[in-house]
Amino acid sequence: MNRNGFIPKKSNEIQVILSEDAIKNLTKIKTVPRIKPLHEDIPYNLHWGFLDYGGKRVLDIGADCGSTADFFLQLGATEVIAVEGDEKLYEELLKNSKIISGIIPVKMFIDSSQAIVNLLETYKPDIVKVDIEYYEILLNSVPDDKLTLAKDYVIECHVNGVCEILEDKFSKKFDVTTCVFHPARVFYARRRETT
Questions:
Q1: Domain that includes residue 156, residue range
Q2: To bridge 56 with a disulfide, which of 33, 126, 135, 153 should be the other Cys (CB 3.0-4.6 Å)?
Q3: Is residue 11 in a domain?
Q4: Beta-bridge partner residues of 157
Q5: How far apart are CA 178 and CA 47, in angstroms?
Q6: How far is Cα 138 from Cα 114, in angstroms, rounded to an integer?
Q7: 31 in a domain, yes or no?
Q8: Are 175 and 192 in contact (CB under 8 A)?
């Protein structure tokens, strides 16, 4: 385990984060969904719950109707910038943001790496969650100095090979750990602090 609490990836192995802090965090997750998850078969605590969201600003790219934003808020996030490009999902997100304090809805379809850069520069998040159905590959074209504007990333990959490409990209400046949840893979990246 490194000083960030991550178990570093070794060669091509797939590992799950099992730091003591992560395990403590998972065992104390007791959320009650106020927004019905789009995919009820995904256990959010196992999918997104390995980070400490307490007191953090989260950029939720691919926020659907706000169910993940609600989850992050229940784990102590101060606010969640919830980005959604699908018209119907955005309408639900907008309604839910009026009911649940702390959700800031942004209607935007992510179709370029510059869109991601703009979000990072505008909102200066502590944590970035990315679940944008095959468009996560755009992160590969985001300059490293822009990626490091956020300390933590949690990214769901939908296509074989994309996770590996993004892991290579992030490993230049971040410690990376991968978790596997069928059918998708989720990887976490924590920026290495310079001493």
A1: 20-191
A2: 126
A3: no
A4: 185
A5: 11
A6: 9
A7: yes
A8: yes
**Can you name the residues that pair with 82 across neighbouring β-strands?**
60, 105
Alpha carbons 76 and 126: distance in angstroms, whole number: 13
Q: Is 88 domain-assigned?
A: yes
Distance, in Å, from the CA atom of 74 to the CA atom of 176, rounded to the nearest integer, reads 25
Are 171 and 143 in contact, with CB atoms under 8 Å apart?
Answer: no
Q: Which CATH number covers residue 87?
A: 3.40.50.150
- Pairing between β-strand 127-130 and β-strand 57-61 as defined by DSSP bridges: parallel
Residue with tokens 């490409």: 165
pLDDT at 20: 56
Number of domains in the chain: 1
Q: For residues 1 and 90, what is the distance between their CA atoms, to the nearest angstrom?
A: 39
The list of the chain residues with pLDDT below 50 reads 1-19
Question: For position 107, what pLDDT does the model report?
Answer: 98
pLDDT at residue 159, as a whole number: 80
Smallest CA-to-CA distance from 51 within 162, 141, 179 is with 179
